[in-house]
Amino acid sequence: MLLSLVIPCYNEEESLPLLLPALDGAERDLCAAGHQVEAILVDDGSRDGSAKLLREATESRPWMRVIRLSRNFGQTAAMAAGFADAAGEVIIPLDADMQNDPADIPLLLTKLDDGFDVVSGWRKDRQDKTITRKIPSVIANRLISKISGVALHDYGCTLKAYRRDVMQGVHLYGEMHRFIPIYAAWHGARVTEVPVRHHPRRKGVTKYGLGRVPNVILDLMLVRFLWSYGTKPIHIFGKFGLLNMVFSFGAFALAIYFKLTGEKDFVQTPLPVLCAMFFLIGCLSILMGFVAELTMRTYHEAAGSPTFVVREIYRSGLAEAPPKLKALRLG
Predict the structure, then answer these.
(1) Long-range contacts made by residues 321-330, C-beta under 8 angstroms, separation at least 24?
(2) 108-131 as b/e, with b when 16 or more CB fall inside 10 Å?
(3) Residues ≥6 apart with Cβ < 8 Å to 148
(4) Average pLDDT over the chain, rounded to whole?
(5) For residue 70, what are the contacts with CB-CB under 8 A and spacing of at least 6?
(6) Among 294, 296, 299, 287, which Cα is nearest to 238's?
(7) 40: number of Cβ within 10 Å
(8) What is the chain's alpha carbon radius of gyration, rounded to the nearest angstrom?
(9) Which of 180, 188, 138 is CA-nearest to residue 159?
(10) Which residue from 107, 112, 200, 258 has the fewest beta carbons nearer than 10 Å?
(11) End-to-end distance of the chain based on CA atoms, in angstroms?
């Protein structure tokens, strides 16, 4: 089985002398177990000496190649570049700072052999600062598990293993790389996790802090919205619009009641203004839903993207791989 290791690197000049020998050892062990290995290191616009070290590393390692991005695009974009270049049946991303241990890769492969499609590393004994890293991580992971319905202890651990077929059609933006197990589970993949080692950072400085928390929350909301309403946006916009119209009619009825009972005139209450405001918001929301529906249908028809996923096809009692299916025409 060909394994593709995808490793984003950004200003890791001090960590690379530790990472490269660890990769050498992992490559030897995996090859001894009968696997083929390719390592794709993505230089995400490093401004230190990382590019030179990576280029030199490929001279003596034919199983390794480096993709150098034109500038710093971020971890998700770097991982997307590595995934796009990967040829393996299994894709395994990991960090370059040596907090992930390449020696744990066989643990992930064992779970894949048990029939799972995605295996997520769980930094059970995480070696990071408690206040700024561990506590926010625990809260974020519980929130993500609750909203997504996919219960994992550690979405932020980069060390994961994906079967290649579950990555088909996954497009990464923002901080979306951490949500790949959610995408996969929603499309029928079997997801599990396994405890892995986590080492304290020995060299360099971390690139992440509390500033990422709002981005993660917003990306999570987007992921949930796309999954729940990506193919039927009129449902969310329409419901919101109808709710505003109900408020509008309620405000109108209450204003008429005050007028008829003589308690208050129209100019003595904000109800007429609220009536008009809610009505306009409702109309605009429904119109936005129509526009979103047109956009969604145009996307699926133009891109040939199906609105369903087939796992297997049985013929004469035997299972066969599903064919590449075109999108179902809508309307």
Answers:
(1) 327/300, 327/301, 327/303, 329/301, 330/297, 330/300, 330/301
(2) bbebbeeebbbbbbbbeebebeee
(3) 179, 182, 185, 220, 223, 224
(4) 84
(5) 45
(6) 287
(7) 24
(8) 25
(9) 180
(10) 200
(11) 43
Dist CA 81 CA 101 (whole Å): 22
Cα separation of 25 and 195, whole Å? 21
User: Which residues, including other chains, have CB under 8 Å from residue 120's CB and lie 6 or more apart?
Assistant: 152, 154, 155, 157, 160, 181, 191, 192, 193, 194
Question: How do residues 277-304 score in pLDDT, each as one tens digit?
Answer: 999 999 999 999 899 888 877 766 666 6
Which region holds residue 11: left if phi is over 0, alpha if psi is between -120 and 50, else beta? left
Output the pTM of the full model.
0.73
Q: In the numeric block, which tokens belong to residue 94?
A: 């990991």
Token couple for 43: 């230089």
Phi-psi region of 317 (alpha: psi -120 to 50; beta: other; left: phi over 0): left
Distance CA 245, CA 196 (A): 53
Boundaries of every domain in the chain: 2-227, 233-320
Ramachandran class of 316: left when φ > 0, alpha when ψ lies in -120 to 50, beta otherwise: left
Amino acid in position 279: F
Write the CATH number of the domain with boundaries 2-227: 3.90.550.10
Distances (CA, A) of 53 to 50, 69, 83: 5, 15, 22
As to burial, measured by CB atoms within 10 angstroms (0-12 exposed, 13-18 middle, 19+ buried), residue 75 is buried
Query: 135-148 vs 212-229: helix axis angle to the nearest 10?
Result: 10
Q: Give the pLDDT confidence of 58-73 residue by residue, as tens digits.
A: 999 999 999 999 888 8
